[in-house]
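Researcher: We are triaging several targets before committing to wet-lab work. For this one, the compound of interest is pyridoxal-5'-phosphate. I'm pasting the protein sequence and the ligand SMILES. What I need is the predicted three-dimensional arrangement of the protein with the ligand bound, expressed as C-alpha cells, so it can go straight into our comparison scripts without reformatting.
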Amino acid sequence: MGAPSFLNEIDSRKAERHQQGRDRSLPQNSAPISFSDNDYLGLAKHPAVLLSAQEAIKKHGTSARAARLLAGLCPEHQSLESALALWKQSERALLFASGYLTPLGVIPALVGPSDTILLERNAHACLFDGAKLSEARLRLFPRQDMSALRQMLDSTRKVNPTGKILLVVESLHSMDGDFAPLEEIIRLKSEAGAWLLLDEAHAGGICGPEGSGRAAELGLTSAIDLQMGTLGKALGSAGGFIAGQAKIIDHLLNEARTFLFGTALPPASARAALTALSIIRSTEGEHLRQTLRKNITLFRSESTSTQLGPIHPILCTTNSDATASSKILKDQGLEVPAIRTPTVPTGTARLRISLSARHSESEIGLLAESLKALPKS
Ligand SMILES: Cc1ncc(COP(=O)(O)O)c(C=O)c1O
C-alpha cells in the first residue's frame, strides 16, 4: 500500500469546502467604510495611542525579543498589568501575546483529565481549543439555557464528585452579539462549587463603569474567578490578559505554557493599550461609549436587529448567500464580512455587523439602506 498522500487530501478538502461555499482566501482590497473590525471606540487610530506606541518603539525596539521570564524587565508590560488589574477590580493581571493564546495557556493550567469543563455550544474557537488541550471532559450547553446548565452541573457533580468544574462563558457573544445571563450563571456555578472563566473580549471597553465590562456593569466582578480580556478590540492594540487573585496569577505565570514559551507581546502594543485604557477610563472614553450607544440605537431603529451591543448578526440562508451579500455591500463601499461554517454552526451563516463610535450617522444610514436593498435569501 502506498503512503497516504498529503496533497491528495489537501485537494479533496479544498473541493469539499468549495462545494459547501466555505472556501476562503485573503481579501485583495477593502471597502472604505468598515463594519467588520472590533475597534469599537475607534482607539486604534487615536493620536495619543499612536504617539505612545511610537515612543515605545523608539525606546524598546519593535519586539520583546524573548518570552517574558527571559527577556528581562519591561516596564510597559508591568504598568499595563497593574492598570488592567485595577480596571478589573482584581488583585493581579497577566498579559499574553494574543487573546487567542490566553485560554490556550490558562485552561490547561487549571484543569486536567480528572476535571470537567462546561462550555457554551457556540463559544469562540480559542475557548474550545484551550478546553481540548487541557484533556478535561468537555460538555457543551446552549448559551442562554439555564435549566440545561443547571442539569449539567448537577449531573457532572454526581458522576465526578471530586473533580473540579470549570465553567467558561463569553459575556458578550462574538458572533450572536447577545449578553449572557450572568446573574443566573454565577448563582448556579456558586451552588455547584464550580469556577467561572468569563471571556469579556467584546464587552471590555464598551460597557460598565469606566468601560470595565459586563460583569462590572452588573456589580458581579467579585463573584468571577477569572476575567479574561483582549487588547485587540476596544483597546485598539494586540494581546490578551487574564485577571484574578494574585495566587492564581502566580500559578499561571508558572504553568500557562502559552505564557511561558512564546515571545511576549511587543512593548509598543502594551504601551498603546495602556494609553487606550487611560482614555477608556476618562471622560473622553465615556463620550465615546455614549456615541457608540447612540449608533447602536440608530442602527436598531433602521434595521431588524434586536441586539443591545455593537455586534449585529444578519442571518442568511446559506454560506453562498452570505458571501454574495457581503460582495454586494462591498461594491457599495461597505466592508461587512460573511461569517460561515465552521466559525458559526451549519445553517446559521450570516453577515456580521460591528458598530463603532467612529461611525457617522450617514454611514449607519447607508448601511441600513443597503441591507434593506439586498436580495431576499
Ligand atoms: C470571544 C473571543 N475571545 C477571544 C478572542 C481572541 O482574541 P484576539 O483576537 O485578541 O486574539 C476573540 C477574537 O475574536 C473572541 O471573539
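Researcher: Any quick observations?
Model: The chain has 15 helices and twelve strands.
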